[in-house]
């Protein structure tokens, strides 16, 4: 009998852990991609109606950005919970909170029905959603990578991003199917169905995560605390004790954080408003990207195991800087094929490569007692400073300049900042302990 290879070689217990982590990542990206699609196409008309479409779009993207403001706070709070009381407990709280917020968004009446209260409720739920999302990636990445065998941490960490691909397919697929029907129905009730579907995903996530077990590394650490061999440390203070790691983590994450939101979220708005592209084309393109993301994320993670995390992430950042202009040039082509090709060129190649590598890179920068907090702080601050405001910044830059070049420059500068920060990361892939792959100097 031939030995099992690839994902089939992963033990059942480890596959269950990966599934439990990935379902939350899927919820995180489902919520945010869905909101991004709504912000680009639906919300300007439903929650911010007016005579000026540019103003409506800016208001809609501002609401999108608001959801990122509480992500760092969520990262700190739930990072503390994960490091102090267990990754599983943190993961259960965050996935339930995300699901409730997204579901309630689908129940908000339009501005035409309740006036100013409609966008206010949207903003409140968006901020609450951001709080729970802020605590998701840290414990998910930590528990999955802690389970990973030496030499396969990149692959295991990247499997979380397959959940993001599934989220792309679900969110864009549902919006595409519903958007293809009657426009009046879609703008009134159709767009709400994908948001309400979050309740179903939440139930599935809770069932999967209820079966999670803490890693041996975390169990060992907890046991040393209980026996008094080691004094319990404050996770946040331990992470702050190494400020270089925190700062580098934020800067490293910036290019990854803006890639999807520029290419897929702002890109859709740009195509619809400037080139009169049918939103359906963008929805289908996002779905295609999702399918490719499911396949390519573990491929990129495996490559990072082979050539080294730092080298691979630097190449991905450079790829984003080089390919962002061709992507938007393809968006201007007007045909569906060119637009879909632009999404692949601008995001699947460099963006998924960065996404598939970042969480493993961050987990390797902190010891077990502060790992969840460290990952959350780096990941969520970079997403807030970068991805959260990327569509709004791009829309404002285009409105100011009247062409796409300032957007290209903005993306390129962020990518180069990621290259420099990653170059300074001290990565030691030869170290066996998953918590000490970065040498703190």
Quick summary of this structure?
The protein has helices at residues 12-41, 43-46, 53-66, 71-85, 87-105, 111-114, 117-133, 137-147, 153-179, 183-190, 192-196, 198-209, 216-226, 235-240, 243-275, 279-307, 309-331, 336-348, 350-363, 371-385, 390-401, 405-423. The chain has 441 residues and is an all-alpha fold.
Commentary on this structure:
The structure is a single chain. With 441 residues, the chain is mostly helical. The protein has 22 helices and no strands. The chain has helices spanning 12-41, 43-46, 53-66, 71-85, 87-105, 111-114, 117-133, 137-147, 153-179, 183-190, 192-196, 198-209, 216-226, 235-240, 243-275, 279-307, 309-331, 336-348, 350-363, 371-385, 390-401, 405-423. The protein is globular, with a radius of gyration of 21 Å. The relative contact order is 0.15. Residues 1-6 and 428-441 have low confidence and may be disordered.
Distance between the termini: 48 Å
**Please, what is the average pLDDT?**
82
Counting helices, strands and paired strands, the structural category is mainly alpha
Low-confidence stretches: 1-6, 428-441
Order of helices and strands: HHHHHHHHHHHHHHHHHHHHHH
Q: What's the story with the biggest beta sheet?
A: none
Give the helix tally. 22
Q: How many beta-strand elements?
A: 0
Shape: globular
- Overall helicity: over 70%
Radius of gyration: 21 Å
State which percent range the strand residues make up. Answer: under 5%
């Amino acid at each position: 009998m031939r030995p099992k290879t690839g994902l089939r070689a992963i033990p059942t217990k480890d596959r269950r852990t990966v599934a439990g982590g990935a379902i939350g990542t899927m919820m995180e990206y489902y919520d945010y991609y869905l909101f991004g699609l709504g912000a680009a196409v639906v919300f300007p008309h439903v929650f911010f109606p007016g005579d000026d479409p540019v103003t409506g779009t800016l208001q809609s993207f501002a609401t999108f950005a608001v959801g990122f403001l509480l992500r760092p706070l969520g990262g700190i709070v739930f990072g503390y919970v994960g490091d102090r009381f267990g990754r599983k407990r943190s993961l259960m709280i965050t996935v339930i909170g995300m699901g409730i917020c997204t579901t309630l968004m689908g129940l908000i009446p339009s501005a035409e029905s309740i006036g100013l209260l409609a966008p206010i409720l949207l903003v409140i739920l968006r901020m609450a959603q951001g709080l729970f999302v802020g605590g998701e990636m840290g414990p998910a990445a930590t528990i999955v990578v802690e389970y990973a065998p030496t030499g396969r941490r990149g692959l295991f960490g990247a499997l979380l991003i397959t959940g993001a691909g599934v989220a792309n397919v679900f969110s864009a697929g549902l919006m595409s199917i519903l958007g293809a029907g009657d426009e009046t129905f879609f703008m009134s009730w159709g767009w709400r169905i994908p948001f309400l579907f979050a309740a179903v995903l939440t139930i599935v996530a809770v069932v999967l995560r209820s079966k999670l077990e803490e890693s041996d590394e975390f169990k060992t650490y907890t046991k040393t605390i209980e026996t008094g061999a080691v004094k319990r440390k404050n996770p946040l203070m331990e992470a702050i004790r190494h400020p270089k790691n925190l700062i580098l983590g934020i800067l490293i994450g910036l290019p990854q954080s803006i890639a999807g939101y520029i290419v897929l979220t702002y890109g859709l708005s740009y195509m619809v408003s400037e080139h009169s592209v049918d939103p359906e084309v963008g929805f289908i393109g996002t779905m295609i990207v999702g399918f490719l993301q499911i396949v390519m994320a573990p491929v990129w993670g495996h490559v990072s195991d082979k050539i080294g995390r730092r080298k691979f992430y630097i190449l991905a950042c450079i790829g984003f800087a080089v390919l962002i202009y061709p992507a938007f040039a393809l968006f201007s082509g007007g045909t569906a094929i060119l637009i879909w090709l632009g999404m692949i060129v601008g995001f699947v190649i460099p963006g998924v490569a960065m996404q598939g590598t970042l969480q493993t890179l961050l987990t390797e920068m902190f010891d077990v007692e502060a790992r969840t907090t460290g990952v959350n702080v780096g990941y969520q601050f970079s997403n807030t400073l970068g991805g959260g405001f990327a569509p709004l910044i791009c829309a404002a830059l285009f409105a100011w300049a009247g062409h796409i070049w300032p957007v290209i420059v903005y993306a390129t500068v962020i990518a180069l900042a990621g290259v420099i920060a990653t170059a300074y990361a001290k990565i030691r892939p030869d170290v066996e302990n998953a918590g000490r792959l970065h040498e703190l100097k």
